[in-house]
Structure formats: structure tokens, C-alpha cells
């Protein structure tokens, strides 16, 4: 079934956007255009990778989050906090301190999503043996969406298993409803996200299931609050911190770093991070050029989640800190069998459908005609991909023209040619420019 | 719509250029992903064969709403025994080519499996011509 409304946490703030077109140039699905001096995003094409946010010089692209106060709608406020969070702090700030600050903020308990990785890794290993290979990890939601949009022929390779954040949320709900006899409606599970993609996977999950997570908190927001409190605590020299531990293991900490899945696979695997590297591997896989690989761990961000768009600190420092931390911990930390049995019953997700982009026309015959036209137009363009037309490349402008979304005169060079031939007046040329870049750009400041 | 490519023998780094380009086009005109995969695999194997076995060659791809037609003409040693070459696992690839990860003898059989119509004409000492037709309408 085609999903009609796809949730994106990304919002381009028109009052901050100056139409510089940086975002348009990096978008892997060409989802952005500049019109009237503002960037516009095509929601059906966006895969929530966050690349546009990284390059925006005016910080005009914001990631929406749930209101923090919502945690108080619940009696049991459970925080699912990815272990990459701990990599953001200096060694002076202990896990115990972070834990106690979070409790003071109102959380009943703090758990890392990766508590469920021992169970999940074993399940994945069996899954690989029984399914079409190479199996592609379902960990990074932006990768799943990239495959749906740009590599539809590979959707059946995507692993149809839930990931640590969902599994741990299910586990916690079970524990709290049984052990603590809590009313289900009173349990609120909040996930701290390192990126826009994970928000999308909570709000519009792919694979026909309902997310067990009740709310999402952005990691940069939580970091600021914890950092501020910890500085205070360090200054006050608070000695009697409750020594309550957050349950962690080596595998749990390493899971969200590059290699965290692959290194635990029985079969041959490959770990790839960084959007361009991921695209390159998927192209090759689709071409049938990849052989002898059973598992592909693909993550959109360079250094995986340590490089997530909402992680505040340097990805290399964070990853290194986490690896050191992992060395001091036991490798595994299994949950009781009773719970892994429960997780086994809910770990699967449904079919992953392609989300094909209709570039030209849904009918092949019509699409082919339009494409031929676009090819012709493209050949008449200068080919320097300057973006001054408000489309990401000459090829994209040619497509936009054929689809009636732009005129050929949007091209600066075409306008000069027409001007030279006398078929376009200065006024007309300015008018076109204003439509793309906004009238305010053509008055003296 | 027609596309043309030139392939140089021995240039393993460029193998896959034509199939990638054609793949992009087929995606943009909403061809069934299963069909796209068949076209890409067949074309890629044929491209690699020119790189691995011939001196150089030309590829022509013609896309219509009903089918993708591919013709590859190369100048090279030709194939002595086409029937044998079509068998799974048969290969005359040099050890150097094998070291590069090619030469498993699955190329021609793979093309045959993915094509709706596949013809091979070859003249020893002169060259080889492949014609591959794949219908774009998925009928199972
Ligand atoms: N274009 C070609 N020119 C000359 N010989 C070829 C060509 N294509 C295939 N062959 C011959 O047919 C054999 C089988 O081809 P193929 O099934 O693709 O296996 P492989 O390329 O792995 O050897 C090759 O080893 C080669 O001897
Ligand atoms: S999040 Fe990624 S896909 Fe979406 S608009 Fe930004 S760059 Fe494009
Ligand atoms: S690598 Fe991690 S942080 Fe980056 S998009 Fe994927 S899930 Fe989000
Ligand atoms: Mg071959």
C-alpha cells in the first residue's frame, strides 16, 4: 500500500532561509528546489537523511521534537537513551551522574535501547541464514528510506526485524506492566534521538507496525540540560550521588558505532558508513556487482550514530570514548529468557514497500516521451550545474521544464542568449530572477 | 530512446558504466524493479565480457515502452564453441582475470536466464555480437 502522508521531522523556516541553495545541492533524492528565494522540500522524496541540515549556513532547517513536558502525562516515565549519548561527555561526568540528573529531571528509569542487542544479534544471525542475501540491516531508517526511494529493487533484501529501540521499548513495557503492576496507559516511553531519521521511524514506521515509543526527545536538547546540571554538580562537589548503574555491555555500546552489527555476524559482512559510500554500495549491489557478502551494515552518517545530526560533539572523539568504555564492560548482558521469548514473538515486521519517485509520469509510454524531451533540453543546456535556476542540476532543470515546474528561461545562460537575440527584455529577465530568488535580492541594500 | 556506449578491452574499472546509466533511465520511466534488475544484470555481464575477453566494443541500447533491446558488437578473438561457452561454469578467463574476481563462467548463462530473447553470433578471430531483448511488461 502506498503511504500517503509521510511524516518528516524536518522543517525549513522561511524566515531564516535565505535561499542559498546549499541544501538543494546535497540532497541525495533531489527533493529540494529554490522558489521565491526560499528552499522548498518535496515531502514524498525526502528520506530524512539530514544532509541538508548539515550544510545550512543559517540553521534554517529545524528538527521538530515533542514537548518535553509531555513526559509528565505519564506516571512511569521511561527514558530510552542511546549509548552514543554517553560519548558526548568528558570523563569527569560519570554515568552515575548522568543517570541521577535524568532522574531529577523526572524520569522513572533510564535504559539504553541496546539492552536488547544480545537477543537481536542472535536473531539476525538466524535470519541471514534463512533469507535472501545479502541481507541489508534495518538499523538506519534513512537507509531504509533511501532504498525505498532510489533502490526499489532491493526492498526485499532489507531485514524485516525490529531494531533495539523498538525491542527495548516493548521489553520495558512488559517489565513495568508485570513487575510493577503498572497500568499500560500510565507507562510513557521516550526515545532520545540522534537524528531526524529515527524520529521519522517512530512517527511513520516502515514495515507495517506501530511504534511502541510514545515520544521523542532530541539529543542536543537533552545534552544541553544534562551538561548544565553536571557543571553545577561538579562545582558544588556533590559527593553522595546515588550509585545506581545504567545497564550496559560492550556489545550494546558498540552496536550503534560502525561495525557494531557486522562484527557479530557469523557470516561474511561489510560495514559501510557515510551517505555517499552507502549509495555507492547500493548501486553496485543493484548492478549485481557484489558477491560473497551475506550481510550489509549500512549507516547514513559518517561514524554511524556518533555522527548523527543531533549529536553535539565531534564524532571521532565520541566514537573513541565509547570504544574505550566498551572495553571495560562485560561483552554481553542477556535479559532473562522469559523476556527474550517475548521479544521473539514481536521481533518481525511486515513487508517493506518501494516508494518510487514519479519523475515524469506514472505511465511508461508517457514517461519515456517526456524523458526524451528532457534529454533534448539537457543537451541544449550548458552543463555546469550552477544551480542559479533554482534546480539542483542542469539535468534536474530539464526534468522540471518538461514537468511544467520551471521554464527554460530559468537558466541564466539561456536568458543571456535570449537577451542577445533580442527576444527577452531586461525587465522580463529580472522578473524570472525574482520568481526564483525573491524580489528582495534585486534591490540595493 | 537510444543510447550508445564504447567499451575498451581490459578496462575493468569502467565495466558497469552502461548498465548504471540504463538503470537510471529505466527507473525514471517507472519500469518494474524486477525487470530493471534483469536488464542490468544481463547488460553488466555482457559489458564485462567485452572488457575481459575482447579488444573493444560498442553497445547500443534501444528503449521503447514495450521492450529494452541491447546489441553489443565487439572486435576480438570471438568464441570458438558458443554452445560450450553458454554452459554454466565454462570459462577461458586467464588467472589474472580470475584474480580480479571475474571469470566464474556464469556470464553468458546469466544473460540467457535474464533475457527474453538472446542471440550470440561470433566469428573466431574477428568478434562477437550479442543481441538481448527484454520485455518491459512483467508477465511472471
Ligand atoms: N565477447 C567475448 N569475446 C570472446 N570470448 C567470449 C566473449 N564472451 C564470452 N566469451 C567466452 O565465453 C566464455 C564464457 O563466458 P562467460 O559465461 O561470460 O564466463 P566468463 O566470462 O566468466 O569466463 C569465456 O570464458 C570466453 O571464453
Ligand atoms: S533530509 Fe535528506 S532527503 Fe530530506 S530534503 Fe534533506 S537532504 Fe533531502
Ligand atoms: S547513522 Fe544513526 S544517526 Fe545517522 S541517520 Fe542513521 S540512525 Fe540516524
Ligand atoms: Mg563473463
Structure explained in plain terms:
The complex is a heterodimer of chains A (445) and B (140). Chain A is of the alpha/beta class. Chain A has 3 domains: 64 residues, Alpha-Beta Plaits; 279 residues, no CATH class; 80 residues, no CATH class. In chain A, strands 6-5-8-9 form a 4-stranded parallel sheet. A 3-stranded parallel sheet of chain A has the order 7-11-10, covered by helices on one side. In chain A, strands 1-4 form a two-stranded antiparallel sheet. In chain A, a hairpin with a 2-residue loop joins β2 and β3. In chain A, α13 crosses α14. Chain B has a single domain, classed as 2-Layer Sandwich (Heat Shock Protein 90). Chain B is built from 5 helices and 5 strands; from the N terminus they run βααββαααββ. Chain B has a 5-stranded antiparallel sheet with strand order 1-2-3-5-4, covered by helices on one side. The longest helix of chain B is centred in the first third of the chain and has 21 residues. Chains A and B meet through α10 and α13 of A and α1 and α2 of B. The structure holds adenosine-5'-diphosphate, iron/sulfur cluster (SF4) (2 copies) and magnesium ion (MG).
Residue-averaged pLDDT of chain A: 93
Q: So what's the overall shape of chain A? A: globular
Estimated structural class of chain B: alpha+beta
Radius of gyration over C-alpha positions of chain A, nearest whole angstrom: 25 Å
The residue-averaged pLDDT of chain B reads: 92
Strand content of chain A: 5-15%
Stated plainly, the CATH topology of chain B is called: Heat Shock Protein 90
Largest sheet of chain A: 4 strands, parallel
Question: Quaternary state, please?
Answer: heterodimer
